[in-house]
């Protein structure tokens, strides 16, 4: 069964460093998302991406964040200068089309900023 | 803005018994979708069940069913014949209908309910 994959599973970085989190969505999906979950808190929407552009973003998704689909398979989230409060689990998700269709989530990348 | 509230931080149930997890939401939209996601210790989010707001009939998926009360903005999840594998964090989530605005799928999640299943 097709699945969303994410790499790395765990990333440790120092404050101020740039990180890139990678996701490979399901191949025939057209909508892509990033969410984050700070430990013990709820899952929060960051950004959605469709047709090679951002379709919606939250207040969390400020100028330090960017997303890219550099080729036909990868979908990346870049944090330019990490802060301690960026430590969280980051989930990528994809869906075939919009509407009530299921968003398939990846296993997540745990980002630890020291 | 839409909000989703899960008032039960933790729930427990005996194996083979039934448990109901509560969820309320606030929206001014008339058309939307509601979901329950399961997050086991592996942390991967798995869709359990979905409900379209325009459908009056409550969704059912095997042992999982919902009680959708649109006027009360309530969306509870009932798990029947609970199994040890049901132990997880459960999230209620809301999504606007695309017809109701420029939404491309943003899910708004509740705080989650940790479900423990006792053998």
Quick recap:
The complex is a heterodimer of chains A (114) and B (119). With 114 residues, chain A is mostly beta strands. Chain A is 0% helix and 50% strand.
Protein described:
The complex is a heterodimer of chains A (114) and B (119). With 114 residues, chain A is mainly beta. Chain A has strands at residues 5-7, 10-13, 19-24, 31-37, 43-50, 53-57, 65-68, 75-79, 88-95, 104-105, 109-113. Chain A is globular, with a radius of gyration of 13 Å. In chain A, a hairpin with a 2-residue loop joins β5 (43-50) and β6 (53-57). Chain A has no helices and eleven strands. In chain B, 0% of the residues lie in helices and 50% in strands. Chain B has strands spanning 3-5, 10-14, 19-21, 24-26, 32-39, 46-52, 60-61, 64-69, 74-79, 88-96, 108-109, 113-118. Chain A binds chain B through residues 31, 33, 35, 41-45, 48, 50, 55-56, 58, 89, 91, 93, 95, 98-100, 102-103, 105-108, and chain B through 33, 37, 42-47, 50, 52, 91, 95, 97-98, 102-112.
Helix content of chain A: under 10%
- How would you classify the quaternary structure? heterodimer
Number of helices of chain A: 0
Largest sheet of chain A: 7 strands, mixed
Basic shape of chain B: globular
- Helix/strand class of chain A: mainly beta
Task: Give the SSE string of chain B.
Answer: EEEEEEEEEEEE
User: Which chain pair shows the most residues in contact?
Assistant: A-B, 26 and 25 residues
Count of alpha and pi helical runs of chain B: 0
**Strand elements of chain A, count:** 11
Task: Name the features.
heterodimer; A: 114 residues; mainly beta; four-stranded antiparallel sheet; B: 119 residues; six-stranded mixed sheet; 0% helix
Topology summary:
The complex is a heterodimer of chains A (114) and B (119).
Chain A: E1 5-7, E2 10-13, E3 19-24, E4 31-37, E5 43-50, E6 53-57, E7 65-68, E8 75-79, E9 88-95, E10 104-105, E11 109-113
Chain B: E1 3-5, E2 10-14, E3 19-21, E4 24-26, E5 32-39, E6 46-52, E7 60-61, E8 64-69, E9 74-79, E10 88-96, E11 108-109, E12 113-118
Parallel strand pairs in B: 2-12
Antiparallel strand pairs in B: 1-4, 3-9, 5-6, 5-10, 7-8, 8-9, 10-11, 10-12
């Amino acid at each position: 069964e097709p699945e969303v994959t994410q790499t790395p599973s765990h990333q440790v970085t120092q404050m101020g460093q740039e990180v890139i989190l990678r996701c490979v969505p399901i191949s025939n999906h057209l909508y892509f998302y990033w969410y984050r979950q700070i430990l013990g808190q709820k899952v929060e929407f960051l950004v959605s991406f469709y047709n090679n552009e951002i379709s919606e973003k939250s207040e969390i998704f400020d100028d330090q964040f960017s997303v890219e689909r550099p080729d036909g398979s990868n979908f990346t989230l870049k944090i330019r200068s990490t802060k301690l409060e960026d430590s969280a689990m980051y989930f990528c998700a994809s869906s075939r089309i919009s509407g009530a269709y299921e968003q398939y989530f990846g296993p997540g990348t745990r980002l630890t900023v020291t | 803005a839409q909000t989703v509230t899960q008032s039960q931080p933790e729930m427990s149930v005996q194996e083979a018994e039934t448990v109901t997890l509560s969820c309320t939401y606030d929206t001014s939209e008339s058309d939307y979708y509601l979901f329950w996601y399961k997050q086991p210790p592996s942390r991967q989010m798995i869709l359990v069940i979905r409900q379209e707001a325009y459908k009056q009939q409550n969704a059912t998926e095997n042992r999982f069913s919902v009680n959708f009360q649109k006027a009360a903005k309530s969306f509870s999840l009932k798990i029947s014949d609970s199994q040890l594998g049901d132990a997880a964090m459960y999230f209620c989530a809301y999504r606007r209908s695309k017809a109701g605005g420029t939404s491309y799928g943003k899910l708004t999640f509740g705080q989650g309910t940790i479900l423990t299943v006792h053998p």
